[in-house]
Amino acid sequence: MAKVTTDSTNDDISESVLLITLIVPGIECITGMIGNGFIVATNAIEWFQSKRLSTSDFTLMILSCSRLLLQFWLMLENTYSLLFPFSYNQNIVYKTFKVIFMFLNYSNLWFAAWLNVFYCIRIANFTHPLFLRLKWRITGLMPWLLCSSAFISLCYSLPISMDVYNVFVNSSIPVPSSNTTENKFITETNVVNFAIMYHLGIFIPLIMFIFAATLLIISLKKHTLQMKNNATGSRNPSMEAHMGAVKAISSFLLFYVFNFVALLLYMANVFKNNSVGNILCKIIITAYPAGHSILLIFSNPKLRRTWKKLQHNVRFHLKH
């Protein structure tokens, strides 16, 4: 079976590279945690006060909770791997980090796909019998779909610890201008097993997300064109809202696809540790949940109003 072997030590990493690898993903994670924390808090408060929550808001809250955990784990793994490389590269520690990371990633991508499917079914206007049947049943199905996705993510993540990665130490690397040797940790990746595990876990939600986003964009664009043809005034708030929705969904789709590619390259150990390619993958992976949460806040009227109210209250208290 094909294998990729990479160096896992960072003894020769420069201070500038270390700072960039720590600071940029760290800022992205903190930004995402603030954004997703705000989404969770807003919906949790509404749920507590009214004793009910719409299906879309509940799904969004679950997605944001999973992203909070993912971003915390991303920041922990990135910091730990850079500051404590020898401890991180112990076989059991390395595999534990990767399994939890993949479980949170799988769950995150599944939940994002289901949220997109829900929006598509509830908003898009298609007359196909199957689509109309789903429109009636999707609300009751969502809790079961989310629980099933979490279970599937766990089932696909656990085999990674057994069949994909193996970390071992080579203690016979000679040190230049010295009679001593140094330890180097080597990460061996079984590419075939990784490709099977990765695509089983992510291919279905990827197709779901792309399909639902495409259908929703087509439906919204058709509806926007109809409103544009029937518009009597120069400014139509409803049409602007639809165009904004098309742009937001298109942005979601780009974020999702870029994250898919970066995650594939990073987890397959295609690039050497601390190389430009590896650092870029980390930045994209941490940017996706942060960027998507910000887009969700500003594309959701309720969240946008609450965010503006929060900003106003913060400014008021700072002035007084």
Question: How would you characterize this protein structure?
Answer:
Pfam families: TAS2R. It is a multi-pass membrane protein. Gustducin-coupled receptor implicated in the perception of bitter compounds in the oral cavity and the gastrointestinal tract. Signals through PLCB2 and the calcium-regulated cation channel TRPM5. This is Taste receptor type 2. It comes from Monodelphis domestica (Gray short-tailed opossum). The chain is mostly helical and 320 residues long. The chain has one domain: Up-down Bundle (Rhopdopsin 7-helix transmembrane proteins), CATH 1.20.1070. The protein is built from 10 helices and 3 strands, in the order E-H-H-H-H-H-H-E-E-H-H-H-H. The chain has a 3-stranded antiparallel β-sheet. A hairpin with a 6-residue loop joins strand 2 (165-174) and strand 3 (181-190). The radius of gyration is 23 Å and the shape is globular.
Please name the CATH architecture.
Up-down Bundle
Report the helical percentage.
over 70%
Uncertain regions spanning at least 5 consecutive residues: 170-175
Q: Might you state the CATH topology name?
A: Rhopdopsin 7-helix transmembrane proteins
Helix-strand makeup class: mainly alpha
Task: Tell me the total number of β-strands.
Answer: 3
For the CA atoms, what is the radius of gyration?
Answer: 23 Å
Report the β-strand fraction as a percent range: 5-15%
**Major β-sheet annotation:** 3 strands, antiparallel
Widest sheet: strand order? 1-3-2
Count of individual helical segments? 10
